[in-house]
Design brief:
13 strands; signal; disordered N terminus; alpha+beta; four-stranded antiparallel beta sheet; five-stranded antiparallel beta sheet
Length: 252
């Protein structure tokens, strides 16, 4: 039996697909790079009631610069009204500085940049998303640079939760949520849930994984008062995995 001939249009599309595959293969490590947002911890309001951070970068696919500022009420672990502030400059000729300046200007109406700069808190622990040797799901720190330590160790552990084929993933894989635990060193290692996803916010797009990136602490009147745990969020991106940031806040 003579095999059926493949239609000319189908043969043409297969050829184009083959060429595209060869181009991607020839690009090697450059392919699938995705977009890893830079993180800048901005600081706290004077009383520690608000924690702020910024993420910024060049959006994969479009090449447009963006800057997002997050202002979080540390008592309720919720966004301050009117935030997050998200800026994307839809012009490839624009610079990151342009996007960051616009986001900063808008943020002045929330908490003044000068106030945040005057109350940075202390970065007690930090792991970049490129760190390979650290545990992405556990971070334990001395909350302040005082030696010998006068504070109890501060430890957090992260658990990744499966949300299955979530709607926002559009068939691109399973979505992941998270549970963040605080370990009480003074009570035999008892763990307390400080955050647990019950649903996935659309703002995370299609999250596929998480890692603890930093712990920021804040003191008022020389006493530890507030903390923020920065968490890197891995997402499905246009050209490869993207990384964005979120924070979970609380009080000592």
């Amino acid at each position: 039996m003579t095999p059926a001939r493949t239609p000319a249009r189908t043969r043409h599309l297969l050829a184009l697909a083959g060429i595209a595959a060869l181009i991607v293969a020839s690009m090697g490590g450059a392919a699938g790079a995705g977009d890893a947002a830079e993180l800048e911890i901005l600081g706290f309001s004077k009383d520690g009631g608000v924690f702020a951070f910024e993420e910024y970068g060049i959006q994969d696919g479009s090449g447009f610069p963006y800057a997002n500022r997050y202002y979080i009420d540390t008592a309720t672990d919720t966004f301050v009204k009117g935030t997050p502030i998200r800026v994307r400059v839809d012009d490839e000729a624009a610079s990151l500085a342009d996007a960051r300046r616009q986001a900063r200007d808008k943020g002045e109406a929330v908490v003044k940049q000068a106030e945040l700069a005057a109350n940075p808190g202390y970065t007690a622990g930090f792991n970049a998303i490129t760190e390979l040797s650290a545990d992405p799901y556990r971070m334990a720190v001395n909350p302040r640079p005082v030696f010998p330590a006068i504070d109890k160790p501060l430890e957090f552990r992260l658990e990744v939760l499966s949300f299955g084929e979530a709607e926002q993933c559009h068939g691109m894989g399973e979505a992941a949520g998270l549970r963040l635990l605080r370990v009480d060193a003074s009570d035999g290692g008892r763990t307390v849930i400080v955050h647990e996803d019950k649903a996935l916010p659309q703002s995370r797009n299609c999250p596929t994984g998480y890692s603890i990136g930093a712990i920021q602490t804040f003191s008022t009147q020389n006493r530890l008062s507030h903390y923020a745990v920065l968490i890197a969020v891995r997402q499905v991106g246009f050209e490869g995995p993207n990384h964005r940031w979120m924070a979970v806040t609380g009080k000592f």
